[in-house]
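Input (structure):
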C-alpha cells in the first residue's frame, strides 16, 4: 500500500468493532503518528440488548491484551461470574452427563484463565471505558449505514441522515444483519434464520427455593430444546436463563416484543412466551428449572440468524470482521471469534505495512477461512440437538452426550490455549530472497561475530566519523558490541577482584540482605531462586540500584516501590565498591548513549528524557555445573535502555543470530559487552532491535560477571512511547521504503495491559522472583501469575 491507513472507519460498536479499534490502535500507532479510528454505531445510545456472554480462556486472554479484562475486574460483582465448567444435565432424569471444563485436572485455568459469564451490557461498558482513554479512537452514535462506494482511492460510507464518512479503510463489524455486507461488499449474502431462537430472562437467585443443581453454569437438555442456566455476577445474585428452542419463522412476528407495540399486545406476547416455556419444560426432573419456568419472569425472544459460509469478506478498501463476515449459531467460542478476528487483522495490517491492502486481506483469509468453516459446521451440528425430537431420538442423544463430551475434550483444551497475539503470521514475499534491507544497510541476513567499537576513538574528533559508522552497523545489525578503551579498566579489574570474597561470605551474612526483605527487589539472591524462560537459573547474585533515589511514600504509585534503598552485605568497603562502580559506569553510559544518537544522526540529547532515576547493577556468580546447563536462559533484557556487561575470562555468553545459531561472545580483557535492551528497541520503533542471548553455565571453574542496566523512566506510558518512537523513526534519515521494510522485532517492553513501564517492570520482577512477589505484592502476584502478556 502507498502508506498505512491513517483514517480508519469501523461500522458497529459491538464486541468486534471495539476490539478491532483497540487492536488497531495498539498495532498501528507506532507507525502512524496521526492515526484516527472512528466507530460509527447505528443506535442512538449504547444497546442494552443481549444476554450473558460466555468468555472462554481464549476470549479472556484476548480481552486482557486489549486492556478490557482489567476493567471488568474493576466492576466488582457485575464484572461476571467465574466458571470452572459448563455442566450438562438431562432434564428427563435430572442426572449430570458430563461437562465442558475450563480448568485442567489440577484445577488450573488454561494459560492462566478459566471461564467467565458476564452480561453483554457490562462487557460493552468495560470496552467503551478503555476506548474513552485511547486518544485516537472516537465513537459516533446514531449513524445508520445505507451504502458505500470508493472514490479517488478512498472508501466512502453513506449514512441514512445524508452524511458521509471518508476513510482509507472501512471495517464492517455491524453484526449478522450487516449493512456493510448487504449494501456494499456482498449484496447476495443476506442473513438467514436458523429456525432456532433464544427465550431468555434473568431471575434473582434468592427467589428460587429449590436447590440450585449447578455450580456456576449448566446446559440442561430435553427433547423440546435446552435451557442454559448460569450465574452472571460474582456474588451469584442473578441467574441468567436462556432456552434454546425450535421456533418457526411464521411464529416469530407473533412472539416478538417491539417498543412500538401497545401495552395489551406486549402483555399478550409475554404471556405467550411464558406458556411456551411451561409447555416445553414444566415436567423436567430438575426442580429449580420447574420453578424458573413457572415464575412470572418476563422472557424475551431472540431469533438466531447466521451468514452462510463462503461469502465475500473483503472488497478493495473494505473488510468484514466478526458476525458481519461469519455469523453462526452461538457456541462456546462465539465471543472469542470476534476477538480473534480483531487481533489477527490488526497484526497483519502492521506486518504488511508496505504491501497492498489486497495482500493483507488475502493473508487474513488464509489464516481464518478454514477455521471459520470448520467452526460453522461444528456449530450447526451442536444446534441441531436443540430441535424438537421424538422420545427415541431424545434417549439416544442422552446416551451419546457423555461420549461426545469425552471424545472432544482434548480438542477443546488445545483450543483454550490459542493466542491470536502469538501465532506465527505469514511473511510478505521479499523483493529479493537473498538480501534483507535493514534501515539503510543491505546485508546478508545474519552475523557470525560481535563487532568492537573503540570508545576513545568515538570521542576523538579525528576518528569519530569512522567509529560512528562502526557503531551504527553494530546497533543496526547485531544489537551487541564490545566497547574498548573506556577508561574504566582499573575500576573493572578492582571490582572483579572483590567478587570472590563477597560471594564467599558466610551464608547467614548474605541472607541478612536477602532480596526477600526488599520491595524494590534489591539484595542477595541465593543459587536457583530466579527463573528465565520458565527454567531455574544456576546463578547466585547481588542486586543494587542507583543510590540516593527518592523512596516510596504512601500515596505514590505502587510501582514506584521499585526505586528504593540498597541492601549491602556486611563487609567493609562493599558499599563504597558498589557506589563507585555505579557512578563511573553511569557516566560512561550517558556518553555512549549520546554517541548512539549521533550515529543515528539525531541530536545527542535525544534519549536523555527516557533515562530513569534508578539504574541497576548486579554482581553475579555462576558455579560450575554439568555440561550445557542453563546459567541464565534465552532472553532479551527488558528493564532499560542498554546493558553494560563486564565478564571474567571464563566465557559462556552467547547471542542468537538471524539464522538461529548461537554465537559465542568470548571475553576481551578490559572491554565491556554492550547490548540493546527492549526499552531502547521500543523507543526507536524497532529500528534498533534487542538480541536474544543466554549464558551457558561453566563446567570446570566459577564464572563472575558484572552487568549494569541503564534504567528507563518508570512513568513512561505507552502513548508517550508510541509518540516518541514515531518521532524518532521519522527523523532518522532513511527512505520511507527502508523504514517500512525494517525487520519487525516484537517487544514486550510495555504492553497495553499496563498503565506505564513501572507497572510492566514490576510484573517482570514479580514473576522472576516469585518469593519476593508473594511477600510484598500478593494480590499482584496472583494476578500476574495467571495473566498472558502480549
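Output (sequence):
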Amino acid at each position: 500500500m502507498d502508506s498505512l491507513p491513517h483514517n480508519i472507519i469501523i461500522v458497529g460498536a459491538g464486541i468486534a468493532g471495539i476490539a478491532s479499534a483497540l487492536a488497531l490502535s495498539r498495532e498501528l500507532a507506532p507507525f502512524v503518528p496521526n492515526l484516527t479510528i472512528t466507530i460509527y454505531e447505528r443506535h442512538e445510545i449504547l444497546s442494552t440488548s443481549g444476554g450473558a456472554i460466555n468468555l472462554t480462556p481464549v476470549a479472556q486472554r484476548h480481552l486482557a491484551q486489549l486492556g478490557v479484562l482489567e476493567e471488568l475486574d474493576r466492576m466488582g460483582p457485575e464484572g461476571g461470574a467465574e466458571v470452572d465448567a459448563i455442566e450438562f444435565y438431562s432434564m428427563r432424569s435430572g442426572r449430570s452427563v458430563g461437562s465442558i471444563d475450563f480448568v485442567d485436572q489440577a484445577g488450573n485455568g488454561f494459560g492462566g484463565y478459566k471461564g467467565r459469564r458476564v452480561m453483554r451490557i457490562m462487557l460493552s461498558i468495560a470496552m467503551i471505558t478503555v476506548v474513552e482513554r485511547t486518544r485516537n479512537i472516537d465513537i459516533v452514535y446514531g449513524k445508520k449505514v445505507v451504502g458505500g462506494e470508493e472514490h479517488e482511492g478512498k472508501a466512502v460510507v453513506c449514512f441514512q441522515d445524508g452524511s458521509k464518512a471518508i476513510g482509507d479503510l472501512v471495517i464492517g463489524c455491524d453484526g449478522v444483519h450487516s449493512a456493510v455486507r448487504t449494501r456494499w461488499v456482498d449484496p447476495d449474502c443476506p442473513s438467514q434464520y436458523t429456525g432456532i431462537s433464544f427465550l431468555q430472562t434473568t431471575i434473582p437467585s434468592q427467589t428460587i427455593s429449590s436447590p440450585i443443581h449447578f455450580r456456576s453454569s449448566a446446559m440442561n437438555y430435553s427433547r423440546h430444546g435446552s435451557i442454559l442456566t448460569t450465574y452472571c455476577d460474582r456474588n451469584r445474585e442473578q441467574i441468567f436463563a436462556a432456552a434454546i428452542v425450535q421456533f418457526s419463522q411464521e411464529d416469530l412476528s407473533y412472539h416478538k416484543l417491539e417498543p412500538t407495540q401497545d401495552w395489551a399486545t406486549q402483555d399478550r406476547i409475554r404471556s405467550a412466551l411464558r406458556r411456551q416455556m411451561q409447555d416445553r419444560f414444566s415436567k423436567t426432573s430438575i426442580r429449580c428449572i420447574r420453578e424458573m419456568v413457572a415464575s412470572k419472569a418476563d422472557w424475551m425472544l431472540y431469533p438466531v440468524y447466521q451468514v452462510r459460509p463462503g461469502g465475500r469478506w473483503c472488497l478493495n478498501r473494505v473488510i468484514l470482521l466478526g458476525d458481519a463476515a461469519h455469523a453462526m449459531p452461538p457456541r462456546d467460542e462465539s465471543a472469542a471469534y470476534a476477538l480473534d478476528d480483531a487481533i489477527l487483522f490488526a497484526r497483519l495490517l502492521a506486518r504488511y505495512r508496505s504491501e497492498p491492502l489486497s495482500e493483507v486481506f488475502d493473508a487474513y483469509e488464509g489464516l481464518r477461512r478454514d477455521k471459520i468453516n470448520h467452526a460453522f459446521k461444528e456449530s450447526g451440528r451442536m444446534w441441531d440437538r436443540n430441535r424438537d425430537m421424538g422420545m427415541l431420538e431424545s434417549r439416544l442423544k442422552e446416551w451419546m452426550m457423555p461420549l461426545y463430551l469425552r471424545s472432544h475434550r482434548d480438542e477443546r483444551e488445545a483450543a483454550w490455549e490459542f493466542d491470536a497475539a502469538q501465532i506465527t503470521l505469514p511473511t510478505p514475499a521479499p523483493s529479493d530472497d537473498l538480501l534483507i534491507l535493514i534501515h539503510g544497510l543491505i546485508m546478508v541476513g545474519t552475523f557470525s561475530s560481535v563487532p568492537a567499537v573503540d570508545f576513545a576513538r568515538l570521542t576523538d574528533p579525528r576518528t569519530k566519523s569512522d567509529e560512528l559508522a562502526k557503531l551504527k552497523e553494530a546497533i543496526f545489525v547485531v544489537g551487541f558490541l564490545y566497547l574498548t578503551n573506556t577508561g574504566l579498566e582499573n575500576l573493572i579489574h578492582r571490582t572483579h577482584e572483590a567478587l570472590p570474597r563477597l560471594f564467599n561470605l558466610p551464608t547467614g551474612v548474605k541472607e541478612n540482605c536477602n532480596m526477600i526483605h526488599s520491595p524494590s527487589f534489591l539484595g542477595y539472591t541465593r543459587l536457583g531462586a530466579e527463573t528465565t524462560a520458565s527454567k531455574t537459573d544456576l546463578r547466585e547474585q547481588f542486586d543494587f540500584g542507583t543510590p540516593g533515589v527518592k523512596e516510596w511514600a504512601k500515596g505514590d504509585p505502587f510501582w514506584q516501590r521499585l526505586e528504593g534503598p540498597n541492601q549491602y552485605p556486611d563487609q567493609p568497603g562493599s558499599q563504597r565498591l558498589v557506589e563507585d562502580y555505579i557512578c563511573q559506569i553511569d557516566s560512561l553510559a550517558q556518553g555512549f548513549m549520546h554517541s548512539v544518537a549521533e550515529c543515528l544522526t539525531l541530536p545527542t540529547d535525544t534519549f536523555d528524557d527516557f533515562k530513569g532515576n534508578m539504574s541497576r547493577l548486579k554482581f553475579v556468580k555462576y558455579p560450575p555445573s554439568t555440561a550445557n546447563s542453563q546459567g541464565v536462559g534465552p532472553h532479551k533484557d527488558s528493564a532499560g535502555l542498554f546493558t553494560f556487561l563486564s565478564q571474567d575470562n571464563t566465557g559462556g555468553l552467547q547471542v542468537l543470530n538471524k539464522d538461529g545459531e548461537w554465537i559465542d561472545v568470548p571475553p576481551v580483557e578490559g572491554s565491556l559487552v554492550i547490548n540493546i535492551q527492549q526499552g531502547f528497541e521500543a523507543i526507536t520503533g524497532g529500528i534498533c532491535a534487542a538480541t536474544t542471548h543466554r549464558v551457558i553455565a561453566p563446567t570446570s571453574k566459577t564464572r563472575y560477571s558484572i552487568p549494569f542496566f541503564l534504567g528507563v523512566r518508570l512513568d513512561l506510558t505507552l502513548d508517550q512511547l508510541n509518540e516518541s518512537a514515531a518521532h524518532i523513526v521519522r527523523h532518522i534519515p532513511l527512505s520511507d521504503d527502508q523504514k517500512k521494510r525494517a525487520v519487525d522485532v516484537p517487544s514486550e517492553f510495555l504492553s497495553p495491559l499496563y498503565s506505564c513501564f513501572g507497572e510492566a517492570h514490576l510484573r517482570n520482577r514479580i514473576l522472576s522472583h516469585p518469593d519476593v512477589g508473594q511477600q510484598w505484592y500478593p494480590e499482584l502476584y496472583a494476578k500476574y501469575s495467571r495473566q498472558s502478556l502480549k
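Notes: Confidence is low (pLDDT under 50) at residues 430-445, 735-748. The radius of gyration is 30 Å.
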